[in-house]
Design goal:
With 192 residues, this protein is α/β, with parallel strands linked by helices. It is 58% helix and 14% strand. Helix 1 (13-24) packs across helix 9, helix 2 (31-41) crosses helix 3 (44-53) and helix 4 packs parallel to helix 5 (89-101). The protein is globular. It binds adenosine monophosphate. Adenosine monophosphate binds at residues 9, 31-32, 35, 52-53, 56-59, 64, 84-85, 87, 91, 136, 145.
Length: 192
């Protein structure tokens, strides 16, 4: 099973991805987590990526696509859940090419829909309550990340609508309710 969790920053993609990993033995491929690992290791890639991430911009497609390609090729036979990838049309097309080469294909793209004002409130709360807020977790950077989401990432949607793979879920509900609705779609895939 290969699934994309799609949605704006703060929509809860990471939380839902973790649940799916536990329930369905999928491998979570979060490009944001991979980049944060590279930063923590102090690698050249991490140093370059940090400056871009701290502004809320997108890291170059070349870096992202090769990170994902390495993971997919190194874990043949696994099911994947993508979280935070693809972020633009180039990445979406590159993913299809990568999967096709391995005779794999995407099952479903689940969009978690949350309005901007709700996301801004969530991030403000996260910053207030956390002693370890991410360096890109502040209102100014979030607003830029939302801009980037509307300018680049959201433009992928017609591509997946044309493939009949996009489903929408209302993300302004409890983690449990969102998770149950996702589960309904997963059950359908498992049955196929
Ligand atoms: P995330 O944890 O998914 O919110 O990602 C945090 C930051 O990492 C983003 O704001 C981008 O700067 C960078 N990033 C993560 N995934 C991607 C991607 N697929 N393409 C480009 N940049 C990314």
């Amino acid at each position: 099973m290969i699934i994309i969790l799609f949605g704006p920053p703060g929509a809860g993609k990471g939380t839902q991805a973790e649940r799916l990993v536990d329930k369905h033995n999928l491998m979570q491929l979060s490009t944001g987590d991979m980049l944060r690992d590279a930063i923590a290791r102090g690698s050249d890639l991490g140093i370059k990526a940090k400056a871009i991430m701290d502004k809320g911009e997108l890291v170059s497609d070349g870096i992202i696509i090769s990170m994902i390609s390495e993971k997919i090729q190194g874990n043949k036979g696994r099911g994947f859940i993508f979280d935070g990838f693809p972020r633009n049309l180039e990445q979406a097309k590159a993913l299809d090419v990568m999967l096709e080469k391995l005779s794999l294909s995407l099952d479903l793209v689940i969009e978690i829909v949350v309005k901007d004002d709700v996301l801004i409130n969530r991030i403000e709360k996260r910053v207030r309550e956390s002693q370890h807020a991410r360096s890109d977790d502040n209102e100014e950077v979030l607003k830029n990340r939302l801009n980037v989401y509307h300018q680049s990432t959201e433009k992928i949607k017609p591509y997946y609508v044309a493939q009949k793979k996009l489903v929408k879920i209302d993300g302004i509900r409890s983690i449990e309710q969102v998770s149950n609705e996702i589960e309904g779609y997963i059950v359908d895939i498992v049955k196929q």
